[in-house]
Amino acid sequence: MTSTLYVCATPIGNLADASPRLVETLGEVDVVYAEDTRRTGRLLQALGVTADLRSYFVGNELSRSDEIRRHLEAGRDVAVVTDAGSPAVSDPGRTAIEAARAAGARVTVVPGPSAVTAAVSASGMVEDAFVFEGFLARKGRDRAAQLERIATETRPTVLFLSPHRVVTDLAALETACGADRGVFIARELTKLHEELWWGSLGEAVRHWGEREPRGEFTLVVAGAPAAKPNQERAVELARELMDRGMTASQAAREAAATTGVGRRAIYEDLLR
């Protein structure tokens, strides 16, 4: 039978969120690769699971992925976990999946807790689509480009913030997006000291600047207001279409579809 790589989500705080399938999988695979073996060791102990546990983190990810491939080629089943949440979501995991595919092994997911979806659900700010940006880049062009994307993105943006950069990153977001932009901040999701906070970026900078940020932070930043349709440009476009042979009615309809300005308003301007 083909060997399998199990991509396993682990609790983001509350151990009661561990699924029976996660417990079964971690207990049955031949080896478990973990971002932090000490932290995962405590999780396994709490779940009553004994496993061959090995490290798999950013510093040794490439060499460990070769090792994972050899295990899979030898017919052994492997599980990959990170400290909390889902592997390969702002955490190691991608190279393990690439190794499994190269080995011709089966890849399957043991889904579970996610700070991203937990924050989206609790925020009340997302109706359908949202954008996930992970952590903000620390500096340079990458950071500037990321902040610009968030500032102009009309969909809500989900971010992770490390506690020692909370105030710095919130201030950067306030500068890029404006002090009035809405934000939801979830601290220590599912843990004993869970805190959910709603307000504006300006208020967030003041609020979190007055205390020592502790724990893990997940943000949902409100999307940028949609740009208002430009009626002057729409009428100008309609006139250009009329110059190409369209009637006023046809040109108004086409310009409305292109610009979002109401057809009747365009048509009435053309008649005037």
Could you characterize the architecture of this molecule?
- By secondary structure, the chain is of the alpha/beta class.
- It is 44% helix and 18% strand.
- The strands form 2 sheets. Strands 3-2-4-1-5 form a 5-stranded parallel β-sheet, sandwiched between helices. A 5-stranded mixed β-sheet has the order 6-7-10-8-9.
- Helix 6 crosses helix 7 and helix 7 runs antiparallel to helix 8.
- The longest helix is centred in the first third of the chain and has 13 residues.
- The model has no long low-confidence stretch (mean pLDDT 93).
For the largest sheet, list the strands in their spatial order.
3-2-4-1-5
* Total helical segments: 11
Determine the structural class based on helices, strands and strand pairing. alpha/beta
Shape: elongated
**What share of residues is helical?**
40-55%
Proportion of residues in β-strands: 15-25%
Radius of gyration, whole Å: 25 Å
Low-confidence stretches: none
Query: Span from first to last CA?
Result: 77 Å
Secondary-structure element order, as H and E? EHEHEHEHEHEHEHEEHEHHH
The average pLDDT score comes to 93
Give a short account of the largest sheet. Answer: 5 strands, parallel
